[in-house]
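Hello again,

I reread your note about wanting to compare the complex against the isolated chains. To keep things tidy I'm splitting this into two emails, and this first one only covers the full assembly. Below are the input lines as submitted, including protein chains and any nucleic acid or small-molecule components. They are followed by the predicted structure of everything together. The single-chain runs will come separately.
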Amino acid sequence: MNDTTGLGDDVQLITLDVNGSPYEVITAPRRTLVDVLRHDLRLTGTHVGCEHGICGACTVLVDGLPVRACLMFAAQAEGARITTVESLADSRTGELSDLQRAFTAHHGLQCGFCTPGFLMLAQGFLAERPEAAKEEIREVVAANLCRCTGYQTIVEAIDACATARRSQRPVGAEEDSCD
Amino acid sequence: MKPAPFQYHRARDVEGATALLAELSDEAKVIAGGQSLVAMMNFRLARPAHLVDIAGLRELDHLGVESDGGLRIGALTTHHTVETAPADRLGAGFAVIRDAMRWIGHLPIRTRGTVGGSIAHADSTAEWCLLAVLLDAEFVAQSPRGRRRLPAGEFFFGYYTTALEPDEILLEIVFPAPRRTRRSPSSPSVAETSPSSPPRSIWQPTARTSAAAGWLWAVSPRCRCVCPRRRPCWRPAARSGTARRRLPPPWTRRVTQAEAATTASTSSAL
Ligand SMILES: Cc1cc2nc3c(=O)[nH]c(=O)nc-3n(C[C@H](O)[C@H](O)[C@H](O)COP(=O)(O)OP(=O)(O)OC[C@H]3O[C@@H](n4cnc5c(N)ncnc54)[C@H](O)[C@@H]3O)c2cc1C
Ligand code: FES
Ligand code: FES
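Full-complex prediction:
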């Protein structure tokens, strides 16, 4: 692979597991995970806002847990399972996941800039806490910033998705039923 | 912004990491969860030439109660692991530690940020630093010269400034079994009161105990401390973000109860 960084400093070869596919990237160590996802792998679904952990636009899952992709160097993600917003919809049919459909139904987005981050935050959180009450969802959603919606509709979308998932299977089941 | 270029080293064991840190001296920084360091590097407040990534040292990711009732937490244990730890792993009387976790940033910060990183970073508003000082914790650190134990009360010199040497790695934090504290013998310790109290209650004893102890970090923006090379240290400290210089005693001053109460109620952590 070519050096896609254009950064001109020392580069290294790293292998990443993104959405179940292996990638080899030659990149500079100073490249953050979000920059490698967007610039090297062209997975531009993950957004980048503040680059210091405040806005949450860059939230992805690393080994199933939500993390800030701007506060992690790509080299640190070697050996981990990375999941981005591109994994949610069915890759063959394009059909949206239940969480994405809940965001649409509850008007959980307006401009949509923050949405990939909120989706991955909710995806990781609900996988760990499928029985989460609305108050817990409200607290977790405070991790990310949205300039448009006022958050209420985002909380409602996540709560509706959690409630629907619970009605389909016993509470506490490990399996994630998003797609 | 984007971080300045650096060389990345992945540590395989503690000995190798400390040897590398000793060799690279001031040029290198340890990276654990990166939740403070990467933000500072993105802003170029920190520009280390080398990063030694210790995140793969799984032997530093542990949490458990000792036979004497004390609690040992490995430096690489994340805030999230502590937050979700089952009661038998955390031990009786330490629920205050679990309850404090939800106040550290947000979930995606807690999934990567580590106990050791918080302590070594030494933000004076950090939950771990307060817990360590209030509950009389000790830190175990290793360098090529060997291991040593440092009491929390003697570890923090000021904002972002600790007794850790540049080639030292924090291995674990040890909390003694809960007991009445020396500082406030008339009132129960935070650990004793917490298990049945709601999480928010920790702030009252915290603020009161700090004020009662009359001890708080107090910093002048341009300190007059001296680094090992006898240079004023505020410049390298500002450049490298987390300073690890020894400071002379006047830098830490005792504060009045009123000052302590004001600071405790207005401080917020990043
Ligand atoms: C948006 C946001 C909000 C936050 N809010 C809070 C909050 O409310 N309360 C709070 O307490 N913290 C908060 N933090 C900081 C967070 O707790 C960090 O996890 C913590 O300060 C650093 O841990 P880390 O593992 O990420 O360390 P890193 O960022 O990797 O390292 C921090 C420093 O510690 C050194 N270091 C790390 N590990 C070791 C070790 N084992 N031995 C020696 N040196 C070491 C590094 O060299 C570096 O200087 C916040 C961070 C962000 C981005
Ligand atoms: S871009 Fe990562 S939190 Fe804002
Ligand atoms: S929908 Fe516009 S920022 Fe959230």
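For quick reference: The longest strand of chain A covers residues 12-18.

B.
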